[in-house]
Amino acid sequence: YQRKWFLDCSDPAYCPALILKGGIGKTYPFLKNHTFFALLHFEPSYASGYEGFKTKMTVGPSLNFIFEWMHSFKTRLELSSGLTFPTEHYWKHELSLDSRYVFQNKVGIALGGTFARQGDQKLSEVKVEGLFYF
């Protein structure tokens, strides 16, 4: 459950939605300890704040690079695009970058940012996350 950004939301800046993310693709190792993967991603979502249909589906390509600098420190770069339907006909383009460091295989911290564009709307986001692995 997270804030979802859509042009046809009753409030495009804040639209909490229930989201399920998935995809199908191929992974390729490159250089030493680094990975590239390409996906066709699917993202159904539901929000009461959506105008018109309350359920939406976003489908599109995603290119991802994971750089493993050391076992406990990784960086991910993602370039993605998606078309949302049934009510929107804008492509949403996103660039995101995040790094995470894991302390003693149980607790970690992640820092990241996203820049997105949909139609003439732009979104910039910075996040800090605490991680707990079990």
Write a structural description.
The protein has 134 residues and is an all-beta fold. It has no helices and nine strands. Strands 1, 2, 3, 4, 5, 6, 7, 8 and 9 form a nine-stranded antiparallel sheet that branches.
Mean pLDDT: 88
Number of helices: 0
The CA-CA distance between the termini, in Å, is 21 Å
- What order do the helices and strands follow? EEEEEEEEE
Low-confidence parts: none
Overall structural class, as computed from helix and strand content, comes to mainly beta
Approximate helicity band: under 10%
Q: Which term fits the overall shape?
A: globular
List keywords for this structure.
mainly beta; 134 residues; nine-stranded antiparallel β-sheet
Summarize the SSE layout with pairings.
Blueprint (H helix, E strand, L loop, with lengths): L1 E2 L12 E4 L2 E9 L3 E13 L8 E16 L2 E13 L5 E13 L3 E12 L2 E12 L2
Antiparallel strand pairs: 1-2, 2-4, 3-4, 4-5, 5-6, 6-7, 7-8, 8-9
Give a brief outline of the structure.
The chain is an all-beta fold. Helix content is 0%, strand content 70%.
